[in-house]
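Teaching assistant's notes for section 4

Start the section by putting this record on the projector. Ask students to predict, before seeing the second block, whether Trehalose-6-phosphate synthase will look compact or extended. Collect guesses on the board.
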Amino acid sequence: MSRGSEFVVVANRLPVDRTVGADGVPRWRRSPGGLVSAIAPVMRRRKGTWIGWTGAPDEELEPFEEDGMELYPIAQSAREVELYYEGFSNATLWPLYHDVVAPPVYDRSMWDAYVRVNRRFAEAAAKVAARDGLVWVQDYQLQLVPRMLRELRPDLRIGFFLHIPFPPLELFWQLPWRRQILEGLLGADLVGFQLPGAAANFVRLCRRLLEARYVKQDVFWDDRVVRARAFPISVDVGELNDLVGRSDVQERVQEIRADLGDATVLLGVDRLDYTKGITQRLQAFGELFDDGRLKPGQAVFVQIATPSRERVEQYQLLREEIEQQVGRINGEYGEIGFPVVHYLHSSYDRAELTALYLAADVMVVTPLRDGMNLVAKEYVACRKDLRGTLVLSEFTGAAAELKRGAFQVNPYDIDGLKSTLMDALEAEPAEQARRMRTMRRRVIENDVDRWAHAFLSELENPAARPGRDESE
Ligand code: ADP
Ligand code: F6P
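Reveal the predicted structure now:
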C-alpha cells in the first residue's frame, strides 16, 4: 500500500471513448460533456490516475496511458450499462435532479445495479490510491462511492463534486433510496456543488432525513465533519485562447460564414438532452418566421447536438421531436441550398467548436435546468473580439455569474424567448461589447484552474473551523 497514486479521479467515464473510424481503425476520442471538459486539463497537470468506464459494454482493458493521463478502466456488462448507466443514473437520478422535467423511473433492479457498480468503482479506487492519498469522486453516477471507499480505506482524503443540480427536499424526498444516497455522499470530507443553493438543499436534507447535527454548511456525521460548499465550475480559458489564435481556426470561421451567406447566425451547441430546452428555442425561432418578424435569408440557426444516451426512451422521443421540428421549419421557410435551420447530430473537435463560436452572432443557451452549462462560458471565453451576444436561461448555474452581460430568458415563456432572441439579434456593436466585456471579466477571473484549485485546497486545508451548532 505504500505505492500507488497520490491523486485519483473517479468518474463514470474515462476522459476518452473508444470509437471506430470510417477506415475501421479503433481510436480514442475525448468523451462528451462538461465533466471531461473541466477535469481533463486539471488531470493533465497533476500526476494522477483517472478511474472510469470506456463507454463500451463488456470491455475488459488493462490500465493504459492516453493524452498525458494514467487511465484505469472499469468494465460494465451490457446489462449493467442498461440498469446502472441508462437506468438508475439517467432514467432515475438525471430527471429527478433536473426538476423532474421528465418523469423519473423508480426500479429496484436498477438500484441494485447502481449499488453493485458503485462498489466496483470504490474497490478500484481503494486499490489504486496511495496511503493518505487524495481521491476526487465525480458526479451523480457515483454517489455511493465516498462511503464505500471510506469503509475500505479510512486513511484517504475523499472529495466529491456534483456537476448537476442538487434538488430541493420536496423532490429528493420521492427517491425510495434517499437515505442511502445521502449516507453515501456523507462518506466524503468535502461535498462540492455548483451553487450555494444546492449545498443548502443538501444540508437541509441531512438535517431532516438523517437528523444530522450541522453548523452552517458543516454536517456532523459518524464522528466526522463533512463540509458542503459551492464551487462553480468553469472552462479552460488558456486552451480556448490558443484555439482562437490559430490561423486554421480563423480560416474555418471565414468558411463557415461564407457558407451561411449574409444571414445573422444563431448557434446552439448541446448534448441532445431534454434538459437543454432545444425544442423551446427552435419553436421560438420558427414562430419568428411565422409572425413575419424574421424573413428567410435574414437569420439562420445552426444547432449542433451531440448524440447522447441514445438507448434511453426519453432521448429517443426528443430526437424524433427535434427532427420533425427542423423538418417543419425548413419545409416552410427554407429554399434550395438555404435551409433556415442547420441541424447537425454529431460531435466535433475543439477547433471546429471554437470556429463555430466565433462565427456565431447569437449564442442560444436555453436549458430548462442545468447545473452550470459550460457552452455559455466557452462562447464568452472565445469572444476576445467583444462581438456576439449570449441568450441565457435563468435556470442554468452559469446565469448566476453571467446574468449582467447575457440576455436572460425563461425558456418556458416562448413569447419572452422570441422577443429576447430579437433583442439579442438586433443589439448594436457597442452594446455587444459592453455586455461581452462584463461577462469575460467573470469567466477569465474564474477559470477551470481556479475552480479545481479552490476545491482541492479546501479538501486539503479546510478553510474554517466549524462554529456554533445551529441544529441544537
Ligand atoms: P453537459 O455537461 O450537460 O453536457 P455543458 O454545457 O456543461 O453540458 O458541457 C458540454 C461540454 O461538451 C462543453 O465543453 C462542450 O464544448 C462540449 N460539447 C457539447 N456539444 C458538443 C459537440 N457537438 N461536439 C463536441 N463537444 C461538444
Ligand atoms: O456533466 C453531466 C454529465 O452527465 C457528466 O457526468 C457526463 O460525463 C456528461 O454529462 C456526459 O454524459 P454521458 O457520460 O452520459 O454521456
